[in-house]
């Protein structure tokens, strides 16, 4: 009897000494700076059953601060936390499984974890689940259920939910087409910091669709989205500076800088246009090697015009006859002048 009481008392005391969330966060900051003892303490707490510690370790390995970056290890820790009901870890698993490169990508698992977090009330997961349901990703499409989850997210003032609801009204898919209603939701989402909403609002404001045409406001939202690495916004800014749109002076160097930012993030249209810029010497020094490299990147993503250029260039290098324009110098091929400013 006394032994049983002593053991019970020991576990009560152990629970009383469990680290608080504040203490665990402090340990994580130390671990991010390379403190191995702090990381070991976090791992001990996680293995002892702390979902918060496991969640923080997931972030540690995902960021690669103080430890080697490892999405696989991050997934292991997030999974440990999620299995204990940690809602944010459930959402993080959804994000990782949705966006990971093959073979780790698992869209079915992503949708399952988003649903778990959505049902627990996590607004961003509700938006992501709604988007997957609307697009039929990770399982059958269901626009009725998609709208329900997106509306739940928007009701919590989640910018992503507001953006997606705006797009439902804008496209008329899953909701009656209503451009003015779309603009209202997109405005909320843009003000909340959603970069896709900022880009879409810039396009609508610049064209006067559903809202008063206003070049200054369009440029404001375009810049806001571009600064958040929205690749289409960066590409559009290149067109703005290349063509002197929205009241801005033409600036080939600025145009090329934004093209480069978009291209480095893997946007095929920007890779193609940047290849042309190097071929033409537009905003940069002419550089045939850089031109070919960027055109090749775009071609590998299936960009039709880039594929045609690369094919012609490779044919010339191999010495075979080429039909059409001078592919060794893409700038001399008819129809390419001003591509940066017009696409």
Throw out a few tags for this protein.
343 residues; mainly alpha; 0% strand; globular; disordered C terminus
Summarize the structure.
This protein has helices at residues 2-16, 21-32, 36-47, 51-63, 71-83, 87-99, 107-119, 123-135, 143-155, 159-171, 179-191, 195-207, 215-227, 231-243, 252-264, 268-280, 288-300, 304-317, 339-342. By secondary structure, the chain is an all-alpha fold.
Written description of the protein model:
It is built from 19 helices and no strands. The protein is globular, with a radius of gyration of 26 Å. The chain has 343 residues and is mainly alpha-helical. The model is unreliable at 1-17 and 321-343 (pLDDT under 50). Helices cover 70% and strands 0% of the residues. Helix 8 packs parallel to helix 10, helix 9 (143-155) crosses helix 10 (159-171) and helix 13 packs across helix 14. The longest helix is centred in the N-terminal third of the chain and has 15 residues, at 2-16.
